Amino acid sequence: MMLKKFLIESFKLAYMAGKGRKSVPILIPVDVIEGIKLLISNREAFGIDASNHVLFATKSSTAHCSGFHTVAAVCEAAKYGADSITNTKESTSDKET
Q1: Looking at the domain assignment, is residue 97 inside a domain?
Q2: What's the superkingdom here (predicted)?
Q3: Which of 3, 22, 52, 84 could be 18's S-S partner, Cβ–Cβ 3.0 to 4.6 Å?
Q4: Which residue range is the domain that position 73 belongs to?
Q5: Are 36 and 28 in contact (CB under 8 A)?
Q6: How far apart are CA 24 and CA 32, in angstroms?
């Protein structure tokens, strides 16, 4: 019961589109909520169209950022090396056994 209380107090539950029209649950830490609100309130100042409802949007139509490519760019900038991260398409969880 303590774990359930911790999760309820520490995270917000959201759903995002997954493969085949399935919803995928995601947990958002509560300390990230204010940052998300800041992103949303400033999106038009950065050229994001008001009709684009994607949280991590791009300036083009209703597109979204590529998480893998964004993380790879940050790793490169930090001199960590993008080759040390793995694309989910290459992960063992997606490989057939």
Answers
A1: no
A2: Eukaryota
A3: 22
A4: 13-90
A5: yes
A6: 19
C-alpha span between 81 and 54 (Å, rounded):
28
Residue 6 counted as domain residue: no
Of 57, 8, 56, 51, the closest CA to residue 28 belongs to: 8
Within a domain: 36: yes
Residue 27, classed as helix, strand or coil, is: strand
Token readout for 89 is 């398409």
How far is it, in rounded angstroms, from Cα 88 to Cα 75?
A: 16
pLDDT, tens only, 42-67: 888 888 887 887 777 777 766 666 76
Is the distance from CB of 71 to CB of 78 less than 8 angstroms?
no
Q: How many domains does the chain have?
A: 1
**Contact yes or no for 42/28 (Cβ under 8 A):** no
